[in-house]
Structure formats: structure tokens, C-alpha cells
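mind reviewing this fold:
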Amino acid sequence: MRSLSDQLVILMKMKSAVLIGLLLSVSLLGVAQRIKTSLPLDFNVRNESVQILGQHQNTIFVHLFDRSDHQIAAFRDNLGLKWDKQMPFDTRDFSLEELLFEEGKFIAFYLERVRGGRLIKGQLYDSNLDSIAPKVKLDSIEGKFARTVPEPQFQLSQDRQQVVVYYIEEQFNDNDILHYTRLNRELDILEQGIAAIPTQESRHTFHELLVSNTGEVYIITAEYKDSGRDHASRYRILRSENNFISDSTLFVSPGQDRFLNNTVFKIDNANDHLVVTGFYADDFRQPAHAEGLFFLVIDLNSLEALSTSFQAFPTEFIAKIKGVRNPKRADKLYTFLIDEVILRQDGGALVVAESYYRTYRANAPMYDIYGMPMRSGTTITYHFDEIIVLSIHPDGEMHWKNILIKSQSSTGDYGRYGSYALMNTGKYLIFLFNDDLNTRSNVVQYTIDGSGKMDRDVLLNSRKYNVYLLPQFGKQISARSAVMPSIRKNKLRLLKVEY
């Protein structure tokens, strides 16, 4: 499993929660009705990580782990500790790669070390962490790789009924090979295969894998204009329905004079569409930036584009984010990353992006007792600033756009206390974050309804509740409640917000 700092690299790019639903135009939600906190647990923030797994029968399950130790803690609805247990596997032979919790069952995926390679295995446990069945072999990774073991990846369908386990076998001067296994939640193998993906050229890379509720697998690769792989000239889509053959390849391209970045692909299972969103720019020689939003809807039955649009950001909108008075100086956004695309039931989408960047400062050199210079370090500051929320109609036209003002910066903590937690109640989007990055910070909530109407409130004061929240590691556990971890003075607490 990844460490807390490793998780941060991924979460800075994209939050893992699946948020689907149509926002309705109703009055805004008030502040949270109830806030609960747990008693503190010992926690080493340098080595340990925390993962909120979910809720079942008024019990909240949390995964606490480091490189070799994996513990499950079960909390009652009032956040009293019910029990805590070690994951029952031998760390000498197995490594835990992924842990899911679905409808009262733990689904664990392991790598077993064997002579000549690795075996990918899965095992089911009940809500008391008792084994339901022995480990089952899902796939194997042969030991012909030159450097490191390919890392298995996991992708769930939107209804969370299916999961695809896959890894990429890199080929020198040739197309890479993607190995995949599609399973149900009982770990029954539904499909297994391989696909050659067009990555032979240095600027062609694997982008992502998706699986629909009906079990069709999509492999998406990117072709970049620049060596830094920031500006994509087009994306290629391969489908399992046609055995990933080149004749069935779909292409997504913004045209010759534009390039895409932050591109997100989503399967709209309700309408049988593929929705593609991303930022577009016209100069690949500059750092990745956004002049506007690209929006594409593809009918997965006819494979025809139903709508394609390029929605430019007005200069007044960019000027407001940048805080400049002259709109003529505001023509691009440089630091925004798309975190989430929320599909609307009518075929439109909500796009959530956050300004994130890092700055570096070289520390003054130190000298030893002989006056010789010693190696000096570099201080990294992590910045999480404004959030923008864009509502797009099915035809690609901009419905509304909002800016959520915030400014967060910190050093020496990998930015773990920055960013935000997102809840989707079906009627509102709720954003929760630390107003300032310190232990006395107020936790702020923004609420947005389906018409774009927005409100801002103070949820709580961190000092009063003796917490310092890590919102980006929070999880929505029901339609109107979320749990977020707090780490302060090497103590872990959970905070539950109910609306």
C-alpha cells in the first residue's frame, strides 16, 4: 500500500470518490446539524497512513497502515472504538496492494512473492475481518522484467459491481502489453485477456483504463506534442468489445492548433455515453495552462460524437481568480488541475478544478568545523488555492461557473492539511476545507445548489474541537454524512459531519 505522502501525489491530481447525480435547484443547505469526534489514537504521521473505507450497519471502518503493518479499526456511529484488528496475512510472503470495502465485505488484493515472479491474489473477509474463503489466484506476473515488478492497478465500475485488475508489461522499442482481469465482487473471474497498447513511440503513453457497468473495458492512450507530456495532441480509445483491434480505434483530438491537458474520461452508464472533459491551450511551448474547457460526448452505440465544444474562459473570470485589475492581462489559467467530473442525469456534467502548485526555496548552506560547505536542503511550499466549479449542458454550453475563494500554503508536511473534501448530497455540492493551515484554523464549508447559487459558512473551529483536519483524505459515507481524519501531535482522531 502507498504511504501517506504517496497518496498525496495521487490525490493532488485527482480525488478518488465516485460522485454521480443531478443537482436540483433548491434552497441552500445550512451548516452541519451534528459534529462528532473520536477519542485520540497513537499515530506516527511520518510513517503511517489512514484510509476511510466506508460504513456498514452503523459501523465505520478505517484502514491504518505503514509499509508492512495493516490494521482495521471499527468505530461505532458515535465514533467510539468498537474493535481494532490486524489484517490476517503473512507479510513475509504477501504484500497488500489494494483494500476495498463493499456492502459489509472487505476485498483484499495481494501480491504473493514466488520464484520467477509474482501472483496476484484476492480474498474476501466479512465485516468482522474473518475470512470468507481462501485466497484465490487472479493473475500472474512473470519475472522477465528488467528492473521492477509492474505495479497492479485497480478500476471499479460506476456501480461498484465489477473491478478490473491490470498491469502493464513494458516492452523495449515495442508496444507495451496490458494484462487485465475483470471480476465481480465475489472475486469470480468474468473475463481475462491482454492488449497491445500503442506506446512504442516515446511520446505515446497509457492514460487510463475504464470499465462500464455492463463490463466493457476501455483502454485510453495519449499522444503528446512535447517531451514533458503536458500537451496532448490526441487520445486513442480501444474497446474490449472489438478485442482492442486498431480498426475499432476511436480518436479524441482538439484539432491541429490546440492541445489538451488535465483530460478526464467518464462513462455515462445511464445514457450509454463517453464524456470527455479537459482544459485546452494553443501553445505547447508554455507550461500546461487553460484557455477554456473542452467538452465531448460520444454515443457508445453508434460511436458518433453527439456534441463537441470549446468554452473559453472570459477574461473577467480569469482576472477575478488572479486578482488583477486589467482583464487584458488575464487570458490563461496556469495552476488548475481537474479533480472531479460529476455526470448529470441529463447528459451534462459538473467540473471541479483546484489551483495547486509548489514553490521551492534553497536553504542557506551550512559549514562544518573546518569551514567546508555542507549540502544545503530545499524547502518545498505547497499551495492549494481557489476552486472553480463549472456546470456544462449536454450540448457543451456553459450553464454557470463559480469561484470558491481560498488560499492555503504550508511547508514540511507534503501539503497533507490542504485541499478540500467534497460531498454530493444529490441536491448540493458541499466543499469542506481548512481556512488557514494551522491548528487554530476555522473549517469552512461552501454549498452550491443546482442553479449555481453559492453560500459560505464556518463549520467549526479546529482548536475548539482539538482537531487538525486532513480534508482530502475524508470520505462521504452516506448521502448526508462524511468522515475526515485529524492528525495533531501524533494523535489520530476522526471527525464526522452530518447534515
Observations:
- DSSP finds three helices and 36 strands in the chain.
